[in-house]
Specification:
alpha/beta, about 325 residues
């Protein structure tokens, strides 16, 4: 049995905190801010994993840490069975893993036309394509359902759906094994959202890609992923098959997210379904379970002791004392 495309074990990410001053004197050493801790996940060949959580939960930080754009404090990463220890190995991963950023237009140079922008990864890595890069650009645009004439346009001349497809085409330039899509449907009309999701699903089937879909939109995750991981304040709260997680959530936070999902039922009051309170600051992380300040089921042990990630059901993990 071949190794998963991506394996993450005990990943932790800390960043320097803000400088502190005392009595107006010189700045004191700042305490590091913990963004991610004890992240253990895997994505198999041709599998799609959804990463869900509110804004500030650490979803995008995790994606950037995987690509070496954010340094890691501890933990282990393996890609296609090979350990990614050190910046050199992490840099090599960028030829086999690609990311579609949340702002597709902002991720493209405004000085480059679409054709050169799509093939820019080939130039960066010194890859020569038969027939030249112009032909390669046309092939990549065709793969995502765009006409070759768009290669002569600038990013600001594209519609939202076209810009998203161009970003996907650019990500496919180096024939990656893993595609990370950060909020792939953000800011798009519902009909265009469906087209983008169908495109990603089709590419996964045709190319055997492993997909990591980052989104706060539960409908997106439910539509295109095989497994789902729930993230809160940099901690994994629950993981498992997508159908099982949505049908029978184990963690109160997962249940709250699902209950807060908009539905066309006038009898459901939004105020009664929303998660209570605001997500705490990372500078003042709660003790015990990170969700206990907003959890309707919290008890004294939740406030005092941080729960470990355990497996109460085969194939499903949850970080909760009472799940």
């Amino acid at each position: 049995m071949s190794a998963p495309t991506l394996e993450i074990a005990g990943l932790r990410v800390d960043l320097p905190g803000p400088a502190r001053r005392r009595w107006g004197l010189l700045p004191m050493p700042s305490r590091p801010v913990n963004l991610l801790d004890d992240i253990t996940l895997s994505v198999g060949h041709g599998e799609s994993l959804g990463l869900v959580g509110e804004s500030g939960s650490g979803k995008s930080t995790l994606a950037r840490a995987l690509l070496g754009l954010v340094g890691t404090t501890s933990g282990h990463l393996r890609f296609e069975g090979e350990a990614l220890d050190g910046p050199v190995a992490r840099a090599a991963l960028r030829r086999r893993a690609a990311m579609v950023f949340q702002d597709p237009v902002g991720s493209l140079s405004p000085r480059l036309r679409v054709g050169p922008a799509v093939t820019e990864p080939l130039a960066i890595h010194g890859v020569h394509m038969p027939g030249g890069r112009e032909k390669a650009a046309q092939g990549l645009l065709g793969r995502v359902g765009l006409p070759p004439v768009l290669a002569r346009r600038y990013p600001h001349e594209l519609s939202g759906g076209q810009a998203r497809r161009v970003a996907v085409a650019r990500a496919l330039a180096l024939d990656p094994a893993l595609l990370i899509a950060d909020e792939p449907t953000a800011g798009l009309d519902v009909s265009v959202q469906g087209e983008v999701l169908n495109l990603l699903s089709g590419l996964r089937e045709d190319l055997g890609l492993a997909l990591l879909i980052i989104s706060h939109n539960l409908a997106v995750v439910r539509h295109v992923t095989d497994r789902t991981a729930i993230l809160y304040l940099g901690r994994l709260m629950e993981t498992g098959p997508t159908d099982a997680v949505f049908a029978e959530p184990l963690h109160p936070y997962t249940r709250s997210l699902i209950d807060s999902e908009p539905r066309s039922d006038p009898r459901r009051r939004r105020a009664d379904l929303a998660i209570r309170g605001d997500i705490p600051s990372l500078l003042r992380r709660p003790s015990g379970c990170p969700f206990h300040t907003r959890c309707p089921l919290a008890r004294d042990p939740c406030r005092a002791e941080a729960p470990a990630l355990r497996e109460p059901v085969p194939g499903r993990q949850v970080r909760c004392h009472y799940a």
